[in-house]
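FAQ: What does the model actually see?

It sees only this:
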Amino acid sequence: MKRSRSFIVVAVTMLMASSTLAGVTQAAGPEGSAIAASSADDGSPGTTRDIDDLVAADVDGLALKAAPKFHTGGGIATYLIRLTDAPVPTYRGGRSGLPATAPRTGQQLDPEAPAARRYVDFLEEAQTEFVTQLERSAGRDVDVKFTYQYAVNGIAVELTADEARAISTNPNVLSIAPDQVRELQTDVGPKQIN
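And it is asked to produce this:
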């Protein structure tokens, strides 16, 4: 019974993802990047307005990037910056001296494994170098609120809209978006999820 519920959850998730991306087409952007474009952006369900905070999706290795959105209220806001290196759970190797950390099918990630710790150290060092570049670009010290290595590889940092716009062209930036407070719409899910 538990296996069939898991299958249903996975199937529903895949259907939702495929229907969300159905209206998105891939167009080549500057420097060969992939940019998400929608055939319609009229606010109707399934258009990019419905998923306006989607700045990057990785579906079977296909990165779809939408144009970044920047804070419009003036002053400093917190921005979430996703960097290009893979987070710990999805890193499949490829860097000299850093073995893959992605668990094999049926296994769980061991965050204390030596390979995972080395890769976390690598990501933290790369994030520190990125912040140094960001501070040079901004001409000031920036306030890094959080760093992330597991769910995503990224940072949360306070920037002006102009600073965010300037750093968005950095080749190490996969996506950038202002942090948003979201209101919980429901605490009830389908009965299949339990």
